[in-house]
Design a protein that fits this description.
The complex is a heterodimer of chains A (179) and B (309).
Chain A: H1 2-8, H2 23-37, H3 44-48, H4 52-63, H5 70-84, H6 90-109, H7 114-138, H8 150-167
Helix pairs in contact in A: 2-4, 4-6, 4-8, 5-6, 6-7, 7-8
Chain B: H1 18-38, H2 43-73, H3 77-115, E1 125-133, E2 141-144, E3 157-159, E4 164-171, E5 176-180, E6 187-192, E7 198-202, E8 211-215, E9 226-229, E10 241-249, E11 257-263, E12 272-276, H4 290-307
Antiparallel strand pairs in B: 1-2, 1-12, 2-5, 3-4, 3-12, 4-5, 6-7, 6-9, 7-8, 8-11, 9-10, 10-11
Classes of the chains: A mainly alpha (179), B alpha+beta (309).
Chain lengths: 179, 309
């Protein structure tokens, strides 16, 4: 029962029409993701920590491309560059690329149930991480540990949860009488 | 022929296409990356933006701090007593060492005055706490809880109880960034304590041991030798312990020995560090750069002279 429910999890069932998103909610979720990214973690927790900002950006780019697109993703990436004290433009480039990929694939991604969406998100996040790797190699950085590949996968595993959480305020609320 | 409007109605207008935006912003990003890596023009921008972002970072640190406070509050009496005993013992041991050092210091000072050697300047020391390690997986850096407010300046050495941890590379108003000795772009001039052989210890990046490069296979080095700072760069004061030689491969066919070292300091563990204020400014370099230049000009003039007599 529970398993079949999970298998059917999808962003919006055909009979559901989502209510319009409130722009301030997008801003708040992005800010929260930023704080989550800046958490002072170390060791295993840091190796496992997914890029929350990339996840949330990807979600909004797929769901609400009218509000969040390449430009906003780029700006958020610059903020991330300052917060992480990395090279200027590194996150910005990766996030702008992610936003573009999301815009390109969104119609296709949205057709699938959440777990299959997660697989596609893993590919997108992996490509973003690969872009950062390429940029840093050109800049002369050393090879990171193999754990570099873990955060995109963890991010993809979190995708269903992120989707459900971010979509929750938009779900239609039906009164008991209606059902 | 009737005019057919080609432009879509204003309702559909959304500015340039995503691909155009990506292309434009991509070029801007690459330009920023280039300027940042090559010319370091953006440090001021980073400082200002970092100051603006500071409250957000503090907010992100709060849950962890609250948790550790709670854990500390409920720490058992027993573990506190144990700690206390261990610390007292350590204090006695260190003070014994310190007394010996003080005597040696005085003797050293006397000898130095006798020999008329310049005094070593005592340096200001700032105790700092590590806030978090850098989230950038390509570098080995730490952030500590004091910055300009405590008079920390870029280039100052950072140590813990066991040895050199790294060097302050960026200073924010209330934070400082320390690049660790294991970072790929970091090098420490060292000498081997036992034999006095000078070398430079290069960091190798995450998960790799720092190396001594370009050492002849015949150099007087053994596994287990302690490396201390030589003080030749004017950044690290001389005599601080840095690392211990871990492996040593001397192959007859190779030009250089392959020597890896293990840092002595708890580079990725220590929570409390000391930032050593810069010692007296190193004397200016002797001006020898002019001579080769002159020689070149002379050479050119000669050549020119030879060209059209």
């Amino acid at each position: 029962m529970a398993l079949s429910n999970i298998a059917q999890l999808s962003t919006a069932r055909p009979e559901e029409i989502l209510r319009p998103v409130r722009p301030w909610f997008i801003v708040v979720t992005l800010a929260l993701a930023l704080v989550a990214n800046l958490l002072p973690l170390s060791g295993v927790a840091l190796a496992l920590r997914p890029d929350f900002v990339a996840l949330v950006l990807l979600y909004w780019c797929i769901q609400e491309p009218r509000y969040v697109g390449v430009g906003i993703a780029w700006g958020v990436g610059l903020v991330m560059d300052v917060g992480d004290a990395t090279l200027f433009g590194q996150h910005a480039l990766a996030y702008a690329f992610l936003a573009y990929a999301a815009e390109y694939f969104r119609r296709r991604v949205l057709r699938f149930p959440l777990w299959q969406q997660a697989a596609q998100v893993a590919v997108l996040l992996g490509l973003g991480a690969g872009l950062v790797l390429l940029v840093r190699f050109i800049g002369g950085a050393s090879v990171p540990r193999w754990t570099y590949a873990v955060p995109p996968l963890v991010g993809a595993l979190l995708w269903p949860a992120v989707t459900l959480a971010l979509q929750w305020p938009q779900r239609p609320q039906r009164s008991k009488a209606e059902l | 022929m009737r005019y057919i409007p080609v432009e879509p109605p204003a309702f559909f207008h959304r500015g340039p296409s995503p691909l155009a935006r990506l292309a434009f912003l991509g070029v801007v990003s690459v330009a920023l990356l280039f300027v940042d890596t090559r010319y370091h023009y953006l440090e001021d921008v980073r400082r200002v933006a970092g100051a603006v972002l500071y409250p957000v970072q503090r907010a992100a640190q709060m849950p962890g701090e609250a948790l550790s406070w709670l854990v500390g509050y409920f720490a058992s009496q027993r573990s506190l007593t144990d700690d206390n005993v261990a610390l007292r013992r350590q204090l006695v041991e260190s003070s014994a060492v310190a007394q010996g050092l003080r005597a040696a210091d005085q003797e050293n000072a006397r000898l130095r005055t006798l020999l008329d050697v310049k005094e070593h300047h005592a340096t200001a020391v700032v105790a700092v706490e590590v806030l978090y390690t850098s989230r950038d997986p390509f570098t080995q850096k730490l952030f500590v809880d004091k910055g300009e407010d405590a008079g920390i300046r870029p280039g100052e050495a950072t140590i813990d109880a066991d040895g050199v941890v790294g060097q302050v590379t960026r200073v924010f108003p209330r934070m400082a960034e320390v690049t660790l000795v294991t970072d790929k772009d970091h090098a420490v001039p060292v000498k081997i304590q036992r034999s006095g052989v000078r070398s430079v210890l290069y960091g190798a990046g995450a998960g790799r041991a720092p190396e001594l490069r370009f050492m002849a296979p015949s150099a007087d080095i053994q596994v287990g030798d302690v490396l201390v700072t030589s003080g030749l760069d004017g950044t690290y004061p001389p005599g601080l312990a840095v690392a211990r030689v871990a492996t040593l491969e001397r192959e007859t066919g190779q030009m250089f020995a392959r020597i890896t070292c293990a840092p002595l300091a708890g580079v990725d563990r220590s929570r409390y560090l000391l930032v050593l204020g810069q010692a007296a400014a190193a004397p200016p370099r002797p001006e020898e750069a002019a001579e080769p230049d002159v020689a070149k000009k002379v050479g050119k003039a000669k050549r020119r002279g030879a060209g059209n007599p």
